[in-house]
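It is worth pausing here to work through a concrete case rather than discussing structure prediction in the abstract. The textbook approach is simple: state the sequence, then state the predicted structure, then interpret. We follow exactly that order.
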Amino acid sequence: MVTRLTAASIALASLFLCAPALAQRAPRGGGPETRTAATTTKDGAIIQWYATLDRGLAEAKRTGKPIMLVSGAPHCAGVSGMWCPGKVKIDNGWLLKDEVVAASRDFVCIRLTSYESAEEAAFVTKLQGNPVNTVFAILTPDALPALAMKGLGRGPGELFADPADMVKQMGEVAAKYAVGVAATKVDGEPTLPITLDARLGLAVASADLQPLALVIASDEKTRAALEAKLAVLAWSNDLRGRFTYASADSLRGLKLDGHGESKSDTLKSGAFKSGVLLIEPDVFGVEGKIVSAIDANDVDKMLSSAMHAASAKHVRAAKSREQLKRLALANGIFFETGIPVSGKKEAEDRAKFKAQIEEAQKARAATKPLQRG
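Step two, the predicted structure:
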């Protein structure tokens, strides 16, 4: 349920996108693991998360590394554009610490998006014993608990006393597998850490305050080849953690450049058949602006420079949950999940906000001047 942005709403959105002072502050809320999931540490390091269970577990099997798992929703009460904050313990900023980021290099880091995959929800439910939204766990390479859960296991504060203790215990877990990792002949390279689909990729990119790198190719072989080339850059030291990634066979269902489904000037000619699109998501992650379109034939020579340029120009604008809610209400924007939400309170909040949107739309329709024939 998405309507076009009104002039007043665009002005409100400019508070997020154009004000330099706001752009320097981390938004309230944040990811399930950080105040702002994509914020760099003081030395510029960021954790690059696998965004799907299957690719994350495959990487753990390939490398023999233990797993650091988190999950969360890039929306709250039907409003996308920010991670649902959950409990204070989840959002304590520990994963922004330089020493924690360094320790995470010995792990496969997986961040699942809640309420999007029945398979992933079943995995979390089996792991935690209940279908919670936000999860934090340290697992073995076989995806079994490596550290005993405390409480629901919804944040690092439920496993560790403080960041120093987190680093210590993570080091101990990693050391158990270090010999095996060193002795294992690892075949292949890390795969591209794509989200479950392109629609979700836009929402995650917006919540993470990042550009989206989207692979487009109608045939699976070409798409796999493009993903492999993009993965090399995604895991490079200078681009690691700077983009959200997705892959699709077409642009069907995506709204780009604010002109409806796939009507970007970049694509209207029909010349672009396959390649990589670099996209700036809007404040909700329901639409996006293409900043660079790299044809499949030009990926080898142009993709790296295009990604570095897009990363350098990207503005990490601050967001307020209340401002997002007002803007969403004014424009009828409501984020639909892939599967029903499991939390009773979240389900009630979503139903309440959806009803508010419907009431606001009825009120606007009632006051709209009658069109004369």
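Step three, interpretation. The chain has two domains: 29-183, 198-313. The chain is about 40% helix and 10% strand.
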